[in-house]
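Now produce a polypeptide, keeping tokens residue-aligned:
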Amino acid sequence: MARLVMKFGGVSVADGKRLRHVGDLVKHFHDQNEIVLVTSALQGVTDELLNCARVSAGEGKVAEVIDFIERLTERHNQAISDAIDDEDIRSEVKEITDRKLSELEKAYIGICYLGELTARSIDRISSYGEQLAAPILSGVLRDIGIKSRDYTGGEVGIITNSDYGNARPLDKTYSLIEERLMPLSGVPVVTGFIAKDEKGIITTLGRGGSDFTASIIGSAIGADEIWFWKETSGVLTTDPKLVPEAKTIPAISYIEAMELSYFGAKVLHPRAIEPAIRKGIPVRVKCTFDPDSPGTLIIREDVQKKDVIKAVTLMPNVAMLNISGAEMIGTPGVAARAFTSLANADVNIIMISQGSSEAHISIVVEERHLDRAEETLRAEFTRGVVREFSHNRDVAALAVVGAGMAGTPGVASRIFGAMGRAGINVMMISQGSSEHNISFVVSSKEAKRAVGELHREFGLGGESR
């Protein structure tokens, strides 16, 4: 009997009917497996919770809070009605959600009167989406004859630091989860995304953190596999909205999956598989609406195939920032000063490139961080080696990912040859020492065409040159 952690989110838990579908899926696999479920909030609820919090802090209108709570209550009551048949279980679950909604309303009213919204308050508010969904999903399982209990992440032992909004689990988390969940009794349903710090205050693991929760639990209980149920058929060779011929990748390595998630692939959260890597636990991405499909298996070993490239991914909404100056040549510490100042300003650097002349450094950041990044660097180098600053918002970053690239001659030639033949100008190039990824920058207007050209060049959709 295999031990599985299954995470459901997004469209998979959009409403009561979808929650019932999740219950049916679990029942299908339960006879042959031990299962722990991790759930996200009902689709869109977290965004609504945060929007109401911002409005409450800014406008302080209690009447609007009451209207919002009524709409949220109606939506979750409808989900309970659609998902659960047994009247006693319905009543029990409704009592739990009513209590949580009452707590939420009081929190909002407090924000209205205070007129401020702290990071700690944001974590508390945003946690309610999962806290409302988990009891319903647990009720569904009991309704179809499977023993179940719902837990918050903190209740199962996910203890983090106090970095609200982007908390990290402490080492003791793993032993606590094992103590509190094992041996498994029925199918526990755990809230994704949320945890608590050592003071017992609610924290969150960042957006996309439900995948992270599942991976943490899988590592803690020694799962045989961790399954992320999505609306897609697995990890794809590229975004099908960009290239309709995109195919499901049967198997990829951990490092390939992390490269893809970092460079814009939305199927996985960038940190989601870190705990799985600790224990070498395979991660599988499966489709909620095609459960018999094997999806994509993510494993430790590099999964090479005849075609050395696995996928092409696009990261839009980025900007390129350039610093230059003749006095940078041979001057130690320029890059260190630049990167340290950006880190202190909470600017994430996506890509970097420096010419061998050392007179020019190009940095790619999220477009929303560009102004802050440029102001920070100008302040850092008010005098001295950097003479010029420039930026370009009209860019996109592409990444070509594949374990087979390592040690294979000619891959870069094919990539940039394809760009040259298509008349697409490459503005910046970056490659790590692992050789699993070549990333580069093109203009935004040429990005979609660049992805299509590379997808064809490497036959990722079955095409051939």
